[in-house]
Amino acid sequence: MSIRVEKVDLPGIGTRHDVVTKSGRRIGIVSHRTGERELAIFDVHDPDASSDSIVLTDGEASALADVLGASVMLSQLLDIGEHAAGLATEQLVLPASSPFAGGVLGDTKARTRTSTSIVAIVRDSRVIPSPTPDTRLESGDTIIAVGTRSGLDALARLLNNGPG
Amino acid sequence: MNESTLLLVEVGALLLGLGFLSRLANRFGFSPIPLYLLAGLAFGDGGAIPLSASEEFFEIGSEIGVILLLAMLGLEYTASELVTNLKRSRAAGITDALLNALPGAAFALLLGWGPVAAVALAGITWVSSSGVIAKVLRDLKRLGNRETPTILSILVIEDLAMAFYLPVLSALVIGAGFLAGATALVIAVLVVSAILFLALRYGRVISALFAPHHAESLLLGVLGLTMLVAGFAQQVSVSAAVGAFLVGIALSGPVAHNARQLLSPLRDLFAAVFFVFFGLATDPSDIIPVLVPATFLAVLTMSTKTLTGYRAAARAGIGVPGRWRTGFTLIPRGEFSIVIAGLAVSAGVEPQLAPLATAYVLITVISGPLLARLPEARWFRSAIGRQAASEFARRKAA
């Protein structure tokens, strides 16, 4: 489903982007030409008025975008399991005790050993989609893998205890 | 004390005082313009403490102030914003001009001031203050509101209209007659169109004259170009202010962005000097006899301005509370009204025009921001509640 983002020019100030949610609420982002950003929440009773506006710094805006982006990506990935029979998706957290923590993804040889596929790694609310064999693994990473039930169980054992 | 020592003392004391006034205005969240005008009244001819040595400084400073006000306005807008707005909000702009300029003109004729003063007063009541309104929108956290683009587009149209209005007025006030006024209008249309065309097509070429990241050369260069073009514009009777406005528009990209930041302290200084000078040149005792007509004119044109905003917002599909917000927000008149009055008075059009414009701007610039808060009051909300509900039902049915 595509979401309509409305762009409005604010001459002399910048632009505003609006999204109207499914529940009928309106959220706007005012981007000032000076680089300042404001998040505007619109009033329920007066849909033309922003009942509150929050000024965001560059860092805050990009952190917010990351969190929202990451959570959307996760829920899309977790949906896969519902659509393909026999396949499941699982999120596994890499423990500090794992022999692979600090190494690279290729070390696990997960695809060969367990026939599962690691589709993404989430680190500090950042998503690394389609990691390559030389993507680093750190303790605390959430590893998103797709595979059969038994394959995923094998992967969990592999990540926790190493091969063998 | 000799002349130059006295000049330092007078200018220094006045600027220091203005600094405190501006701080006071900021504390209470309103525009410093009315306070600057009052300060000028207090120190001018017939005021409490007349200045002697610094008149000339304030006179030259105020001319630079007008040029900088307009140049900054031009820098705020890009050429493409102006052109899109001209296409999209033409109807609202014409309604705005008719509803707000005509009462001013009619009023001047009624007072028996003659046609040139009528054209000047029409301009004074027509143009809202983009500076004051932008600040009100920011202070009331309404930049994100859906009616804000409507408000801004009316301001843009008005500011652009000034590029045609000021040359006509400049021609009329020097007594050149309506034929010369028409010639000035034709010249202005040609020059403005040419500048907009150049800015859209070759904006980068003009901006390439300056190095955007070298502050000193940028400041001197942009200020120099602005004053040079303003001078030439004055010479061909297009009005110095319009020349400065067009320089602002012609610059774009990082040059415009950085020039805006460099020039804005200068603008603040010289704009304050400009408002003070206007007050200096006005005798406070002249204000009392025009107080009643000024109040009447203010109430009349505040209502027509509210109607303008209300209708423009309705056409943009804004709900009832937002339409009232649009109308009330557009009320304040400010820098342009004073620029117009200054232009007319310095040419000796109608001596009463200056006190009338001062009182008029004081009334609208103080009551406007207060009225803009009205739609948030509970009693106002409930009063328009019924109107809003029936409107909502009608919109839903459609």
Helix count of chain B equals 17
Q: Using DSSP, what is the number of strands of chain B?
A: 0
| Mean pLDDT figure of chain B | 86
- Name of the level-1 CATH class of the largest domain in chain A: Alpha Beta
Q: Number of helical segments of chain A?
A: 3
Rg of chain B, Cα atoms, Å: 21 Å
Portion in beta strands of chain B? under 5%
Helix content of chain B: over 70%
Gross CATH architecture of the largest domain in chain A: 2-Layer Sandwich
CATH topology of the largest domain in chain A: Alpha-Beta Plaits
Q: What kind of sheet is the major sheet of chain B?
A: none
Give a written overview of the molecule.
The complex is a heterodimer of chains A (164) and B (398). The radius of gyration of chain A is 21 Å and the shape is elongated. In chain A, the strands form 2 sheets. Chain A has a 5-stranded antiparallel beta sheet. Chain A has a 4-stranded antiparallel beta sheet with strand order 6-9-7-8. Chain A folds into 2 domains: 52 residues, no CATH class; 91 residues, Regulator of K+ conductance, C-terminal domain (Alpha-Beta Plaits). Helix content of chain A is 27%, strand content 34%. Chain A is an alpha+beta fold and 164 residues long. In chain A, strand 2 and strand 3 form a beta hairpin. Chain B has 398 residues and is mainly alpha-helical. Chain B has a single domain, classed as Na+/H+ antiporter like fold. Chain B is built from 17 helices and no strands. In chain B, helix 6 runs antiparallel to helix 15 and helix 9 runs parallel beside helix 11. The radius of gyration of chain B is 21 Å and the shape is globular. The model of chain B has no long low-confidence stretch (mean pLDDT 86). The interface between A and B is medium-sized, with 23 and 27 residues.
